[in-house]
């Protein structure tokens, strides 16, 4: 079940990149469809698309080094079992799963998760985002079941909420205390449950692309959306998650092709990357 979640979330996450921000513009919905047939909203920003293959993540505990690499034998192995990750006759592979989307914005990820059968809770600290998410979700009986709350992960922990999977995309670089935030995400995850988190690497390449290019040259995001010093390296994120009882199983990067206007998964984690882990059993 966790593998199914990773397979789907990695696909949608690349398409979410730069189609939302952690500012009032988060309320804008992507104009293209996400995984399932999600109707576009009146106000949209460009929606990147994703294609590519999965990448295996390897971590050396002694050197704390992180690398992501493609291996032909590994690709062949997972290709052979790819059909088992999703029942081709089922349009709702997440049926019965409880998933929380932390930092859900306008619901751009929450909605396709609900369409695939999950019981979804979307939380965001910006009340305007939650109101717009509810309005859009109510247009469809399937997505109208999403529980949207203007709250934080920490408050959900206080309420002793638990989920089969916790997802937080492009959020951790905006929080005051990443370690405390990951502790909260872990506390929301059931033992052996899944955690998916994406962010931006603190590298010079990321500064050039995610800040200089995206904010000042291409104007994809409002100026000042990101602070370079708030970014985390893959090594730092792995360490933080390990200290929060999360074992990172896989990591992949996102790469944008300006010629095609498409995003794809890559072994390059120097700018945007996504990590998949599981909660240690207790």
From TrEMBL:
Gene3D superfamilies: Vaccinia Virus protein VP39. CDD domains: AdoMet_MTases (cd02440). Residues 40-68 are annotated as: Disordered. Keywords: Methyltransferase, S-adenosyl-L-methionine, Transferase, Ubiquinone biosynthesis. InterPro entries: SAM-dependent_MTases_sf, UbiG_MeTrfase. Residues 40-54 have a biased composition (Low complexity). It holds the Pfam family Methyltransf_23. This is Ubiquinone biosynthesis O-methyltransferase, mitochondrial-like isoform X3. It comes from Rhodamnia argentea.
